[in-house]
């Protein structure tokens, strides 16, 4: 399949070269005569030559080798521009976004989150501390002479 495309490309290049040689040889000699005397007679022949030229040009232009080379060059240039654009854009965007995010959004978020979290945490800890305080008895130590008396209050 690749050899068919290669041969089509070779034929289109050969026809292009032949056409350019023929046109460069015939056009300077034919143009003044066509314009002055033979324009009505030569116009259909010139138009047919022009249509042949256009068909050859389009066959070269639309050949797969030309299109593949053109598209590969175009896409590589496009990808280079895209990578440069994205690297610059992302570096600027991320630096601005992260500076704003870290300075403003994160501080607001953390202050709200910590205030809510600590208020819930402390409101849950206060009854728990009261319960623990009521469960644990505080010992009362009395010194009676050489003896020590330990009592718990209830």
UniProtKB/TrEMBL annotation:
Q: What residues form the membrane-spanning segments?
A: 12-38, 50-71, 77-98, 110-132
Q: Alphabetically list the UniProt keywords.
A: Membrane, Transmembrane, Transmembrane helix
Descriptive protein name: Uncharacterized protein
């Amino acid at each position: 399949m690749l050899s068919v495309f290669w041969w089509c490309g070779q034929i289109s290049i050969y026809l292009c070269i032949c056409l350019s040689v023929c046109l460069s040889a015939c056009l300077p000699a034919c143009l003044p005569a066509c314009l002055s005397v033979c324009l009505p007679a030569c116009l259909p022949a010139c138009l047919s030559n022009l249509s042949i030229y256009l068909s050859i040009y389009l066959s070269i232009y639309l050949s797969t080798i030309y299109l593949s080379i053109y598209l590969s060059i175009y896409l590589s240039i496009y990808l280079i521009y895209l990578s440069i654009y994205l690297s610059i854009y992302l570096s600027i965007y991320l630096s601005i976004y992260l500076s704003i995010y870290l300075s403003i959004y994160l501080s607001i978020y953390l202050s709200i989150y910590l205030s809510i979290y600590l208020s819930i945490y402390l409101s849950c800890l206060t009854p728990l501390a009261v319960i623990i305080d009521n469960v644990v008895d505080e010992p009362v130590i009395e010194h009676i002479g050489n003896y020590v008396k330990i009592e718990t209050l209830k």
